[in-house]
Amino acid sequence: MRKIHAAAFVSLDGVIQGPGGVQEDTTGGFASGGWVFGLWDPAVGEEIDRLFGRDYDLLLGRRTYDIFAGYWPYVDPDDPNGGDMARAFSACRKYVLSRGNPQLDWANSEQLGSIDAVAALKQTEGPDLVIQGSSTLYPQLLAAGLIDRLTLMIFPLVLGPGKRLFGDGTAPGLLALVESRASVQGTLIVTFEQRGPLPSMAEASPPPMDSAREAARQEAMARGEW
User: Fold this and answer.
1) 128-160: b (≥16 Cβ within 10 Å) or e
2) H-helix or E-strand containing 8?
3) Of 60, 81, 179, 215, which is least packed with CB atoms within 10 Å of its CB?
4) What is the pTM of this model?
5) Coil, helix or strand for 224?
6) 177 CB contacts (<8 Å, ≥6 apart)?
């Protein structure tokens, strides 16, 4: 059975949009593209090498696939600054989770139409699946219990507006920290495994205060006035 290892560059306030270039993803007026490179250091490079340093197939959302397909096939395979990655990305299988009709003209690309199709793919023989980016995939895959490892490279900067790692619709759940370290630039590199559903908070929380003021606050909150 294959495993899914997801990884993402993320700001301290949870933004993962456009880390790799100024024009990578400007949707919503995002103007901070390329933000990882001002704080790139050897520890981040080592983590990327570890992520892609073994046989793998790629699992991507349609937008991230479009970004990759518009860049990596055109990198000179002899380029010392990206040729090895370009050759590996072209050679590996690329599975694209999309319910539409994506243009999959990059070699070795295949559409998956649903989360169930991803689950079925995990049961087959083959290399593990790696996700890099693809913000829409994380909540769906976590909710389905399909991510085996999640590595976040949390850069010490705040970006404000932008696509979030966990947006609206993310299901509650517990994660277990299995690895952590900090780079010399202050980037936190942390790896989690899924631990299970979120337990009832009512059992762990203290009982509400029985006061007239708290009762009034609760009533105002229920009316949407607080």
Assistant:
1) bbbbbbbbbbbbbbbeeebbbbbbbbbbebebe
2) strand 4-11
3) 81
4) 0.89
5) coil
6) 190, 191, 192
